[in-house]
Each structure stands twice: as structure tokens, then as C-alpha cells.
Amino acid sequence: MRTIQPKIIFIEEKKLLGKSKRMSLDEDYSQELWKSFMPYRNSIPNRVDDLFYNLKVFDQPFDPEEFDSATTFVKWAAVEVAQHEFQEVTDMETYLFSGGLYAMFLHHGPASSFNQTLQYIFEEWLPSSSYDLDDREHFKRLSEDYHPADSVAVEEVWIPVKSIGADH
User: Fold this and answer.
1) Burial class (CB in 10 A: 0-12, 13-18, 19+), 122
2) The whole model's pTM is what?
3) Sign of the four-CA dihedral 8, 155, 92, 28
4) What is the residue-level pLDDT of the chain in tens, covering all 168 positions?
5) Which of 51, 100, 105, 134 has its CB 3.0 to 4.6 Å from that of 157, i.e. a possible disulfide?
6) DSSP assigned state of 116
């Protein structure tokens, strides 16, 4: 696998609107979650862009060495909406994304090869970087035309980080 160098980016707090579901890799409801969300995507008022957020919120601080296919998390299928003009939408939930410092990687290729990217991030890049994993949301940002089986698909992979030794 080629070396992927991330961009280190500070993100402001964001308001997301979408749907969520508790799941694990063993009991993965991602397809159902996105199918239930996508019919609403074009009727959500005050969207700030055309991007989608595939967000994971872990109950405990995420530890790649402890994570296994039974680890549960809440997954969100969502879009960002303007904070000052936020409106409730039937059948949707709100989520206040905390923001912070992130390492943003680009995954190229189908979703089926995504584990290789994660393996590189957590086994090669993170241990040799000047960052520690932080206890915040992990997410992918996807374009409107993203398709998981596409061999030329591109996903933005955002990993929460902090400088080594920092407490947030």
C-alpha cells in the first residue's frame, strides 16, 4: 500500500442532521441506516454543502488494539446544517459535532479495501506520528456521487488526534 500522508485540520463545532443507529461490525446496519436517510437528503433545509457525514460515536475511548467486531458504537448518516438557522425535520435527529484537531486521510478505491487504509493509519502512521488518538467522533465525509463499490471512489477519513502528551 502506498504511503498516505494526512492533512492535519482543526474543525469547528458543527450541527448535523440525520439518522443514527447503534451497531457493531458483527451487527452492521449501515446499509439500512443510509437507505432510511437518503430519501430525505434533498429536503433538509439550510444544508451548508452537498457532503454526507458517516459518523461513529464510541461509548468508550476508541482503542485500535481493543476494538473488535463486537464493539458497539452509534453510527450517523447525516449532513451539516447552518447552526443559526437550524430547523427540526420530521424523522431526523440532531447531533452537535464537537470539532477539534483531525488527521484527514483520503481513501481511494472501493469500500471493500477500506480496512487496508485503517490498518495503515492505526498501525503505521499514528505510532510514528507526533499525535495520539483523541476521544472524539471518527467520521468519513462523502460526496453526493459516492458509491461504495466504485473502484475510483474517494472517501475523506477523519481521525481525531491530539499532540502527544496533550490533554485535549
Assistant:
1) middle
2) 0.88
3) negative
4) 456 789 999 999 999 999 999 999 899 999 999 999 999 888 888 899 999 999 999 988 888 888 888 999 999 999 999 976 666 666 789 999 999 999 999 988 888 888 888 889 999 999 999 999 999 999 999 888 887 677 778 889 999 999 886 665
5) 105
6) H
